[in-house]
Amino acid sequence: MVFEKAYAKLNFFLDIENKRPNGYHNIVSVMQSVDWYDEVYIEKSVSNEIKLVIDTKSIPVGKENTAYRAAAKYLEAISKDCGVAIEIRKRIPVAAGMAGGSTDAAAVLRGMNRLFDNRLSQEELLRLALSIGADVPFCVLGGTKVVRGIGEEIFPCETSFPKCPILCAKLGEGVSTPEAYRRLDERYDDFSNRAWNESALKALREGMMAGDAKMASKGFFNVFEGVICEIRPSVTEAMNILRENGAYAARMSGSGPSVFGLFETEKEAEGARRKLVERGAMAKICYPV
Ligand code: ATP
Asked: Could you tell me the pTM of the whole model?
């Protein structure tokens, strides 16, 4: 039996550079894993099946599940005629923009590679990861990374993000990722008349190099925020609660609805967490990992 922590992801920076002729968006993102994690347990089984158990009823456990697909692809890649039993204890909010499904898939790939004596190289794992979803390769590696292309170009940052309290929260319903992209396309067409926010990324990088979270947060940016806040007022409301309760920076993660705020102290973050929970949010004080 192996155990993996499947860490959630935040986007400190998320923009679209341009669109490929096939309609895929080339992103520029700074992704950060945080210590809000699903617990993933994997063991070899005698049957040839993949058996998945999740403690959350709304999530499918068959081929639609990212963790199931990861296991199937891994077994196929090593041409192994055996099965696995996977148990996931879900903690990360579902459909929130925190890569819950992607990180479970990544944890299964990492865990199965441990279970099967590291049969695949990291490069092979990352290739399988990309075939499951754009955020999965990042989730295999974790930490603080610059991610480009459709998620396949991953660059380490010179420094990791300073260890400050980050309050993550999901308030209200989100929109699906394809719907979020559709709305962006409506606004920016093929993105040829729009320059991506390179200056913000530079500010973020400089702040990180200085080891200063407050300075780095000046470069936080999310291209989805405009289109999502228009149709999901709860996202704006959650960011306002963060700011009114001491966050020096607040942003949406991914295509929402989850938001995150940076605080000087955990005590302040705890005050904001209570306010968000009173309002009906799922919220947790996290640290970068
Ligand atoms: P991302 O940030 O990568 O866009 P997300 O955090 O917005 O992802 P998920 O939590 O991955 O969204 O859930 C999106 C959908 O995927 C849900 O409707 C869910 O039913 C489905 N799904 C499939 N596999 C999983 C999984 N292992 N965990 C959570 N959701 C899953």
From this structure: 0.96
